[in-house]
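Duplicate of #3305? Posting structure anyway:
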């Protein structure tokens, strides 16, 4: 799909996404607000690209700096949203039983010599919500973790700092354990599963990404996808799991992913399975987020799906660059279509 830049006066050459989309957006757009959104976005020196789809039609696609729009870029922890979707698809297809399924049968070979009994209580839900209770492997702990000879064993050997199902302890290690569970349950790598269950139905390329010393693809970080691929993922959720007339993801899995189950210790926003849940511009909104400001927003009642990519080397605090990106949504993009 080729993108068109905005024309003068905020009138857009619209492009329909693959699948059951309208030739033009079904609702009136406020060109003035869209113009202000683009102008504001252009002034954010950390923001690389902004792609906006309304009712399944691309109405804005701009690269301000950084790689071309057609190039896959590191989406950092926005990978968690992708991998949570793959886990949901794995449940739909019977590869996993349910979110309350215990994961010890897939991980027990990597348990410590005298395992804490709580390891046997860990479930898919605990990994998806990062409520395993194990010590964190993200933030200041990330470098030590990925320097270890076995990332799965190291994550499982972390001491419990909370009970399974307790508070959210933001940790990529939980999603890497999920990668191991998915790979061992299916006999396929996380990349193979992602391509077969998600990439192929949506027409998304899934390049290789980081693997651990044992060859497992890193769960929850460092995938590379294009902004278009992110829009397609968001549209799959907005459309109720249907793509090109095919039911790809069940509504049950979407409802489960968008149901608040815990809250971020950093932003305070609710969290489901791979998605943060909040209100933006007066609308119930869902977003995935990665380091530096890699963002995917879905605002169902506004028919809005937005992908933003940013410099992946610079932090994006909830009160800093991410606040600026939320402001783009709240002040301009949502009012422009809502």
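Output from current build:
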């Amino acid at each position: 799909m080729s993108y068109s830049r905005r024309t003068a006066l905020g009138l857009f050459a619209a492009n329909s996404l693959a699948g059951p989309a309208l030739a033009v957006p079904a609702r009136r757009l406020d060109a003035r607000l869209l113009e202000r959104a683009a102008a504001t976005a252009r002034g954010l020196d950390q923001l690389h690209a902004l792609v906006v789809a309304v009712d399944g039609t691309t109405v804005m696609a701009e690269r301000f700096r950084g790689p071309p729009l057609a190039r896959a870029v590191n989406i950092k922890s926005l990978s968690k949203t992708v991998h949570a979707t793959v886990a949901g698809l794995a449940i739909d297809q019977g590869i996993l039983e349910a979110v309350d399924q215990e994961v010890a049968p897939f991980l027990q070979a990597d348990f410590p010599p005298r395992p804490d009994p709580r390891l046997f209580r860990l479930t898919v839900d605990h990994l998806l919500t990062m409520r395993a209770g194990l010590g964190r492997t993200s933030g200041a702990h990330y470098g030590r973790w990925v320097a270890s000879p076995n990332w799965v064993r190291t994550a499982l050997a972390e001491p419990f700092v909370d009970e399974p199902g307790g508070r959210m302890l933001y940790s990529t290690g939980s999603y890497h354990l999920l990668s191991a569970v998915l790979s061992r349950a299916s006999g396929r790598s996380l990349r193979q599963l992602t391509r077969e269950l998600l990439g192929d139905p949506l027409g998304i390329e899934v390049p290789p990404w980081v693997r651990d010393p044992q060859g497992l693809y890193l769960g929850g970080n460092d995938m590379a996808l294009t902004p278009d691929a992110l829009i397609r993922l968001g549209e799959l959720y907005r459309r109720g799991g249907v793509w090109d007339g095919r039911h790809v993801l069940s509504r049950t899995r979407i409802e489960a992913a968008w149901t608040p189950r815990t809250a971020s210790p950093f932003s305070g926003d609710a969290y489901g399975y791979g998605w943060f849940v909040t209100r933006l511009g007066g609308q119930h909104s869902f977003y995935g987020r990665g380091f530096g400001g890699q963002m995917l927003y879905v605002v169902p009642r506004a028919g809005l799906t937005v992908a933003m990519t940013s410099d992946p080397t610079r932090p994006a605090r909830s009160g800093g660059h991410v606040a600026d990106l939320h402001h783009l949504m709240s002040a301009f993009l949502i009012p422009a279509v809502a």
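Confirmed duplicate; merging threads. The chain has a mean pLDDT of 92. Residues 280 and 327 are 8 Å apart (CA to CA).
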